[in-house]
């Protein structure tokens, strides 16, 4: 079985699965309600997919939860590594220092 894409994908997937099972829905039923293929829904639950914002909101809607609960607390460090670790604040500081 493939591993999760990232800690963020794993966390999101666990939250989707928890919300689905709390409602007593099968993956098939939840996927049908969200108008998506059950295979894709399963990949999201296993953290093997990176769903779009539209998909996250659609899933949250059919599970009757706030979409924010699915992503709350997920941080930049939970994503795959980037080629740099700069934030907007770092960039602004560097530009001010160069303008000096």
UniProtKB/TrEMBL annotation:
Q: Which InterPro entries match?
A: Cro/C1-type_HTH, Lambda_DNA-bd_dom_sf
Domain HTH cro/C1-type positions: 16-70
The record lists the lineage as:
Bacteria, Bacillati, Actinomycetota, Actinomycetes, Micrococcales
* Name of the protein described by the UniProt record: XRE family transcriptional regulator
What's one Pfam family the UniProt record gives for this protein? HTH_3
Q: Which CDD domains match?
A: HTH_XRE
Classification via PROSITE patterns: HTH_CROC1
Q: Which organism is it from?
A: Agromyces protaetiae
Domain of life of the organism encoding this protein: Bacteria
Question: Which one of the record's GO molecular function terms can you name?
Answer: DNA binding
